[in-house]
Design a protein that fits this description.
Layout (H helix, E strand, L loop, with lengths): L1 H27 L1 H4 L3 H11 L3 H18 L3 H7 L2 H20 L6 H30 L5 H17 L4 H5 L6 H17 L10 H28 L11
Membrane topology: Multi-pass membrane protein
Protein name: Cytochrome bd-type quinol oxidase subunit 2
Subcellular location: Cell membrane
Length: 239
């Protein structure tokens, strides 16, 4: 059960970093990818169907972390509480920009929401980089991790965009940045004493069984969403 809990934590951590990080990367590069209002709406449409489903992985990660690994609460959540608060602020600001952007048909309103999207995405990425970098040994790794997430977002756009927008991201490879994020997740996990942080047998069993039951639903939902929106984006969406 202990090995299964550790494997689930690693999988959810990798999924959260890869999926949420890709969305953040798109937001970080929004002014460069979309050089007009119409282009920016098209870029946002690339992540529109996915970003809420991707955020569920972070919620699931927090649940298994708190429930199955209470010993990590002090080392991660308390000692890095500032970074986690900043992450949540960036998350809320980014989502607010995404949801509000299409509510009012005004160029100034759209420009203001774009600022929220970009600022929130950079804040989210740097906070993730700080947390991951601190676990790996240095918070100075935050900028490189953030840039990696930006490349990861560009790689995701490579599979979603067309025309001139696609040409701007042809240099990226989504599978490569995904592999690097996986390696960073594994390296961070090896620096934590996960076995010592495990919950008691009863709590661990309950949380692990619940995570095992939920995992196919999360993976199935992700695959279904990807299949339903498999076509490339050719114009602005609803955001």
């Amino acid at each position: 059960m202990e090995a299964l809990a550790i494997a689930l934590l690693a999988f959810f951590a990798f999924g959260s970093l890869s999926l949420l990080g890709g969305d953040a990367g798109v937001g970080m590069l929004l002014p460069w990818l979309g050089r007009s209002g119409n282009e920016r709406r098209t870029v946002i449409a690339a992540i529109g169907p996915f970003f809420l489903a991707n955020e569920v992985w972070l919620v699931a990660l927090a649940g298994i972390l708190i429930g199955a690994f209470p010993g990590l609460e002090h080392e991660l959540l308390y000692e890095q509480r500032t970074a986690f608060v900043v992450l949540l602020v960036g998350w809320v600001v980014r989502d607010a920009g995404l949801w509000w952007r299409g509510r009012i048909g005004s160029p100034r309103w759209a420009a203001g929401c774009d600022v929220l999207i970009v600022a929130g995405s950079w804040t989210l990425a740097l906070a993730l980089g700080t947390i991951l970098g601190t676990v790996l040994g240095s918070p100075l790794l935050a900028p490189p991790v953030a840039l990696l997430l930006a490349l990861h977002g560009a790689g995701f756009c490579r599979s979603r965009l067309t025309g001139s927008l696609l040409e701007r991201v042809r240099f990226t490879r989504y599978w490569l940045t995904t592999a690097v994020l996986g390696a960073l997740t594994a390296a961070a996990g090896m620096r934590l004493d996960l076995e010592a942080a495990l919950a008691g047998p009863t709590t661990l069993r309950v949380v692990t069984v619940f995570a095992v039951v939920m995992l196919p639903l999360l993976i199935g939902g992700q695959l279904l969403t990807r299949w339903a929106f498999r076509e490339r984006v050719t114009g602005p969406g609803y955001l």
